[in-house]
From TrEMBL:
Domain of life: Bacteria
UniProt-listed NCBIfam families: urea_trans_UrtE (TIGR03410)
Keywords assigned: Amino-acid transport, ATP-binding, Nucleotide-binding, Transport
GO molecular function terms noted in the UniProt entry: ATP binding; ATP hydrolysis activity; branched-chain amino acid transmembrane transporter activity
Keyword presence, Transport: yes
Residues annotated as transmembrane: none
SUPFAM superfamilies per UniProt: P-loop containing nucleoside triphosphate hydrolases
Similarity remark: Belongs to the ABC transporter superfamily.
Record protein name field: Urea transport system ATP-binding protein
One of the GO biological process terms: L-amino acid transport
Amino acid sequence: MLRLENVSAAYAQSPVLFGVNLEVRDGEAVTLIGRNGVGKTTLLRTITGLHAISGGELHLNGESVTREHAFARARAGLAYVPQGRGLFPHLTVEENLRMGLPALSGREGVKREIPELVFDLFPLCRDMAGRKAGNLSGGQQQQVAIGRALVTRPRCLLLDEPTEGIQPSIVGEIEAALTRVRRELQVAVLLVEQYLDFAWAFADRYYVMQKGTVVESGLTRDTPTASVQRYLGV
């Protein structure tokens, strides 16, 4: 599904990622953890094409997308929910959802309309369709942001800190929705997350990043959260 081989990236002349190897299989959930500033967000942005890759290869669905623009990767089935949600606050919920429709261009047999599943997973997207996104709570905004990503009918979904600043009840709703997405649509998920209880409950495998590279990986079911907590402490 998604495979990274020795991926590197930099800001100007300052290297940030150093030969990252990572894989997410069909229908699998993988969590990426590490302290702030180790390169997790840069890695997600490099995968999506929003940040330039300086070395290595990116493969999606068995095809190299290393030199493809961000819009081409989106059309190939890659969707991204950034940290902070990235919604347009002065647009309505429905208008924000429709911003995902251009990613469907060129796909045969796919209607350019918001899938009913988005409203099924997140009823507020229908109930609050006419409300400005900037007037929603953080948890509500996160549901809209994930819904917008799902409008693109992705094969692989990237999520950057989806539980940040969200009340526990909404975190549970998001976890339930994402679990359905995985099981019913076989969408692969790569999740950057600091909340280990959520990450371990949802993900099958984990990778740990330090100083721009992967230093540990394994199965979440075989690894207690206490054994990786040291990678998150200051």
